Amino acid sequence: MILAHGLGGRSDLPVPLWLALYAGAAAVVISFFALTALWKEPRLRGADAGRPLPLALQRIADSTFTRVASRVLGVALFAGFLAMAWAGPATSADNPAPAWFYVWFWVGLVPLSLVFGPVWRRLNPLRTVASLIPVRHREPPERWGYLPAIVGLLAFLWLELVFPHSDSPRAIALFCTVYAVIHIALGVVFGPRWFDRGDAFEVYARLVAGLSPFGRRADGRLVLRNPLDGLLTLSPAPWLTALVLVVLGSTAFDGLTRLPFWTSLDAGVLGGTAGLAACIALTYGAYAGAIGLTRPYLRRGFDPYPAFAPSLIPIMAGYTIAHYFSFAVFSGQQGFGRTIDYTVVSTGMIALVQIAGIVAGHVLAVTSAHDRSVGVLRANYVKVGQYPMLALMIGYTALGIALVSGS
């Protein structure tokens, strides 16, 4: 099995590339001007928003049985995965563990979190094992913020996108074992809060879960809400913006590696590492440039980096859907131990999902950013102050569509 890391290399869009680019950019621009005309005051309420769901449903979700069953299930699945990765066949053609890890788990975290909210927090086997060791916990330094999660995420992305034997069951087993030992140990030292900001996979799942229609209100009530309200409930800890931009940069690199330009370079591990770092740096630089141009229009006392960070999460989710959709549909079949059926979905449908994911992510991002802007930009500069971020999102949209088109 050759695990393709993303969706680059396709040039079978159901419409010409130029039309897809214009349509994507137009959707972002039209939504922006509609918002500036109709959305004059902040409307998103964050943790105070949401329509309560039936108490019976909340009792089931919060019951001891549900909590214990979730933890047992998470540990059992992780143990079975490690056993297969370590002791199963040595090649990915015969061992389903790589498909389980890259497709069922990594890609599956996105739809799981979008639909059901932060359920991985309960399933997380590392959190469960660490909680079984009763010791006095220390508080992790506040200045660390999401930095430990970024380190773990970069390690995973390097394994997935750069390491030449990324589909090796033994390499995956080693990575997951080392990762688990480190985070269980840190979870024992720092307690449950460690996983809230330090575990890359739990943090990533929780960020995506901010877009779920299901969530918790400030009073703990389970509610049905506007997904954009969920974004405002995320902790604005240090390094949040960098974490999201690492994911965005990695998906850009993923698309780049599918292009004939990249494949002709034969870059190797060093070239791949440099390419991944460059894509992340360029993504971060573009965002920093837009923020720099926005600063003069801000009210006093607002830091634009954390203020607009939640607006990047719909883009992150949209890019993830675009770059991993066909990978999940095709390579995910190998998790069942069967030959891939490439006829289950057409290339036209794949391209439509790719474009829809990117455009929808950017439209939601524009909406979230606009709601934030009317609260933090000076009254006379609400529209012009958003132009830098609008230009950034148009650029991200065009780049994303171009990369998934293989052009």
From TrEMBL:
<protein>
    <recommendedName>
        <fullName>Fenitrothion hydrolase</fullName>
    </recommendedName>
</protein>
<feature type="transmembrane region" description="Helical">
    <location>
        <begin position="68"/>
        <end position="87"/>
    </location>
</feature>
<feature type="transmembrane region" description="Helical">
    <location>
        <begin position="387"/>
        <end position="406"/>
    </location>
</feature>
<feature type="transmembrane region" description="Helical">
    <location>
        <begin position="144"/>
        <end position="165"/>
    </location>
</feature>
<feature type="transmembrane region" description="Helical">
    <location>
        <begin position="305"/>
        <end position="330"/>
    </location>
</feature>
<feature type="transmembrane region" description="Helical">
    <location>
        <begin position="342"/>
        <end position="366"/>
    </location>
</feature>
<keyword id="KW-0812">Transmembrane</keyword>
<feature type="transmembrane region" description="Helical">
    <location>
        <begin position="231"/>
        <end position="253"/>
    </location>
</feature>
<keyword id="KW-1133">Transmembrane helix</keyword>
<feature type="transmembrane region" description="Helical">
    <location>
        <begin position="273"/>
        <end position="293"/>
    </location>
</feature>
<feature type="transmembrane region" description="Helical">
    <location>
        <begin position="99"/>
        <end position="123"/>
    </location>
</feature>
<feature type="transmembrane region" description="Helical">
    <location>
        <begin position="171"/>
        <end position="191"/>
    </location>
</feature>
<keyword id="KW-0472">Membrane</keyword>
<feature type="transmembrane region" description="Helical">
    <location>
        <begin position="17"/>
        <end position="39"/>
    </location>
</feature>
